[in-house]
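ok trying this again, last paste got cut off
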Amino acid sequence: MLMFRQIRSIDNIRSRGYRLTPQRRLVLEILEKSQGHIDAETLYERAKAHDPNISLATVYRTLAVLKEAGLVQEHRLGENHGHFEPTQATPHYHFTCIGCRQVIEFETPAVAEAVQSLTDREGVQVMNIHLSLTGYCSNCREERATNHEAKVE
């Protein structure tokens, strides 16, 4: 039985003039079942386990179609390559630890307030927001502090 999200996904793809090929359906299903953010190579490996004939190029083309349809978001997360996740119903943002690479998702009304203020003041229409923070998570901060104290002694 198709879930609401999958039905909406199919409608979004078709409304943009694309067919929902078996490969596109597979990539979308893997993304929707994934916990967290995955890069194209990981997605390709998972897809290849289900369809040995799928290529990495097909995965990249499919991700482009899904992004255009508004079904997938790409995030850099402090790296030189993209990580993908299904588009969420509510906006959220990312903190990436530069020590352990942990990604922490968070929501904040402050971003929406800033966008509204900018819109009211300048008359702009904001189409996309990318907010990605990097730093050290609490565990890495503690580890760095411990290591620093050990060096001082």
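PB: full thing came through this time. The mean pLDDT is 83.
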